[in-house]
Each structure stands twice: as structure tokens, then as C-alpha cells.
Amino acid sequence: xxIRRRPPKSPHNNTxxxxxxxxxxxxxxxxxPLYLTNGIFFTLFFSVAYFLLHxxxxxxxxxxxxxVLTLSxxxxxxxxxxxxxxxxxxxxxxxxxxxxxxxxxxDEQEQSSFITCSPVVLPKSVAxxxxxxxxxxxxxxxxxxxxxxxxLESKLGDCFKAAKIRREAxxxxxxxxxxxxxxxxxxxxxxxxxxxxMPVGYxxxxxxxxxxxxxxxxxxxxxxxxxxxxxVASTNRGCKAIYVSGGATCVxxxxxxxxAPVVRFSTAKRAAELKFFLEDPLNFDALSVIFNKxxxxxxxxxxxxxxxxxxxxxxxxxxxxxxxGMNMVSKGVQNVLDFLQTDFxxxxxxxxxxxxxxxxxxxxxxxxxxxxxxxxCEAIITGxxxxxxxxxxxxxxxxxxxxxxxxxxAIAGALGGFNAHAANIVSAIFIATGQDPAQxxxxxxxxxxxEAVNDGQNLHVSVTMPSIEVGTVGGxxxxxxxxxxxxxxxxxxxxxxxxxxxxxxxxxxxxxxVLAGELSLMSAISAGQLVKSHMKYNRSSRDIxxxxx
Length: 549
Ligand code: ADP
Known about the structure:
Layout: H1 34-61, H2 71-115, H3 124-127, H4 135-144, H5 152-156, H6 159-174, E1 207-215, E2 218-225, H7 231-244, E3 249-259, E4 262-264, H8 268-279, H9 281-292, E5 299-308, E6 311-319, H10 326-343, E7 348-351, H11 364-369, E8 372-381, H12 383-388, H13 394-411, E9 417-418, H14 422-433, H15 440-443, E10 446-453, E11 458-468, H16 480-488, H17 501-526, H18 530-538, H19 544-548
Parallel strand pairs: 9-10
Antiparallel strand pairs: 1-2, 3-6, 3-8, 4-6, 4-7, 5-6, 8-11, 10-11
Helix pairs in contact: 1-2, 4-6, 7-17, 9-10, 13-17, 14-17
The structure holds adenosine-5'-diphosphate.
């Protein structure tokens, strides 16, 4: 499933002070920020009320009939009524909305607790009422199916204990041990209802540091979570080559997350009518207003349609601030679909995702149009550094790149895979920084170019990556370890001054690291060192047969 579940509104999950997701409110339609509008109407209401009372007191004193009004009194009365209506509407709508959202969130919670564990942790006293105190008895009841495993968190009101009981039950049911999988030392509250259901422990992945990566004049230490020997060492060598050559430069070309629902009509003609309507620049503003209500950060950028018979695929693209943005864009799309239903009542929404998005699948649409952040990163590596650090020559690197990354990939029918191992670096940084690892598929699309410059003395190397999908808020980014890695890069959480800057910077760091990784691996291959170094770093001197037993 490619839509992440929305963080529940429970205080247990708001661990990194992310404000609750902004559901569309009537106040979103105001041209000014809410606090300013409220301030203006409050001031207006009280000042005209004071003015009118003052005037009427004078009239009573001077025995002037109250209904004889001057122009200023008339204006004051109109202002009083207008501000009164606004204030009544504001508080009234909020009051009603609080009821609606309460019942909606209760519905959502009920559904999710049915599917997996409930994100609502009941108070211990209530939850434990009809449960045995003894762990052993609890495990037995889970094994017998009397207590559903998914309900342990909500029933016990204690996430750690729930994981412990479930773990024991799983071992007994399967008759195998998961002893090596650690249980202690992890905050199970932090994943509840957001990152992982029915936990029994956590997998440890070592994090290595490559760097300093000198990118756009700033040094970064890049955290990489991997179990592949050589990877960090090799990326580190690439970083060194870039550093001593004066650093790399990265430019962000585009930033837009996409979602493409599929809708069906009874004729292709009707599908085409909707396509023309959606792609008409005259309708863009109206559609943006509807779409942008999904979040303070979602801003519609464009709509592209593709038709297959009477089915229409509508690819919405929007900026999403510092969030990777799948939830945000999906909510915006839902708003537009609801709106379109009025003018196109014969439109049958088949699915909010129709795969023209395209999420977590290799697809030409991402490679050509981009998805998430599109970046290009380059460096000029001096011939001296190519020889001394990378142990090869400019010419052999250029030749290898042409025959491997370009021609070889073309022969293989590659889709976005015109590189040596971009996915290696992307995945390792994604895991370390709490990105969605499945999005490594399109995020690793990359074409690596190498060219001899300065009369063949130096090497110009670049990576172009059209669909890096990263965020610094939401999903796994808020967990302690992942958030520490983001902090190391200086991109933790939301950027308050310039929303979106953190996630965009992270995308450039990913591309810079890929550049380093490409340089180093290509050099190892061209120097014929690949097998030798893998035998050194991937095969420890420990006796593998002993480890196996
Ligand atoms: P995604 O859309 O990537 O799935 P989530 O919806 O899980 O992300 O998380 C994004 C949440 O973070 C939203 O509720 C959004 O309002 C909030 N948020 C706070 N600051 C920012 C920011 N600078 N950029 C984007 N989202 C932000």
C-alpha cells in the first residue's frame, strides 16, 4: 500500500511537535491569516459598539429621536452587524466543526483498530479490567486466539508490554526462537499508529558515516545505514575525491509530489471532456483553491491527464513543504474529486491511485516528468586526484561510463538505471534518515555522465536524478535514531522560516552522495579492484562455517 496512514491525533504520537495535520476549514478561504482577520473584526465590533452607545447617550441627553441617523451612525450600524455575523459565524462554525471532526476521528479510530492495533491507548485502569495480571496467562490467551494479537496495545495500554507478550506468543505458535531480535531499548510508543503495527522487536542496522561531502560550499557528514561491506568506505573515498577537487555543486530543478487517480466514464468522449476541463489553464485557479485546502503546505502545481479508452488517469503534482507528501497530495486529490463530482456526476472514481503517479514502481513517467525532487549534481575532478585518490585515469573512467552506464544500460533496456549503483547510496541514506525505503525504486533513477574536460586533463562527472522522494517530517523521520541522522545533516524536522528547504536540502545531499558513490565504484571497476576490495571488506576473516552453525 502506498498511502501512509495519517498520524493519529493522540498525544502519544505527536513526539516531534508536528502540529496536527491541517484538515480543510472554512477559515482557509480567508484572504488574510486567521489571527489578523479575527483581530480586525474584534476591533471593529467593539469600536463601533462603543461609538454607537456614545452617540445614543448624547441623543438621549439632547432628546433627539434615536431613529434619526447620520451617515456615520448608519455606517457604524452596518459594520456592527457585519462584524457580529462574522464573529457568530466564526465561533459557530468552529463549534460545529469540533463536533464533526470528533465523530470523524472516532470513526477512523474504530476502523483502524479493526484492521490492526488501535492507535488509541486506553487508560490502564479501564483497559486492564478484564485482563489477567499474569504475563504467562496473557501469552496463553494470545496463543489460543482469545485475545487478538493486534489488540494488545489498546487492551494493555502499554506498548512495550504488548510487544513483549506478542513476541512470546509468536515464538510459541511458530515453535521457533527470535532471540537475536532485540526487544529492549526501543520506544514502542513512538511507532504506534504511524510506523509499524504488531511489533515484536526491531532490526539493528549499523550506520556508517561518509564524508565530509563538500556540496555547494558546505560540508556534510552523511549517515548511511547498510550491511553491505565496502559501501560506506567506497562512498567515503568518492567524497574525498570531490573534496580535494574543490567540492560538488547541486541544483534543484523541480519539487512536486504526484498522485494520479483513475476515473471511469461510460464513453471515451466524456473522459476526454474531463481531460480538457482539467488541463484548461482557465480552470487551474479554481482547482488550486480546492486542492490546496488539504494542507497549509500543499500547493497544486499542475495536472496532466492520460486516457485509456473511457478511463482517465489524472496526475496531480504539488509542492509539499518538508513532507515527502504522499498523504498531503492524496488529501488534495480527494478534495478535487469530490468537487468534480458535481459537474461530472457520471464520473466513477475507481481508485485514488491509478499507478500513473507512479509510486514505488519503476515507471517512465517519473523518469521523464520527475516526482518529488528533481536534481542535478556535478563536480570537476582533477586528473591528479583521479590518479592518486581514485587510482585510475580520466580516459578509462570516461570509456567505462560510456560502455557501462550508457550503452550497457541501453542494451539492458534500463528505465532510469543509467548508473553504477545509485540505489546503494539512496537506500542507505533513506534507511538512516527515516525515508520510505520502498521509494528507493524511483528515487534511484539516475543518469551518470562522465566527460574529459580541459584537454582531457580533468573529469567532469554528473548525476541527474529526476525523482528523489524525501521528507524531513512525517513517517519514520520522527523516530529517535532517524531524527538524529537528520539532525547530523542539519535538516531535522520542519523548516519554520522556509518550509520545504530542509527536504530540498536533503535531496541535494542524497544526489551529492550518489555522485561520490558513482565516482568511487566506477573507479574501482576501471582499475579492476572491485572483486579484490569486496573480498577484503565483505568477507571478514572470521570463519563463516562457524557463524553458520
Ligand atoms: P506525508 O504527506 O509525507 O505523508 P504526513 O502527512 O505524514 O506527510 O506529515 C506531514 C505533516 O507535517 C502534516 O500534517 C503537515 O501539516 C505537518 N507539517 C509541519 N510543518 C511542515 C512543513 N514545514 N512541511 C510540511 N509539512 C509540515
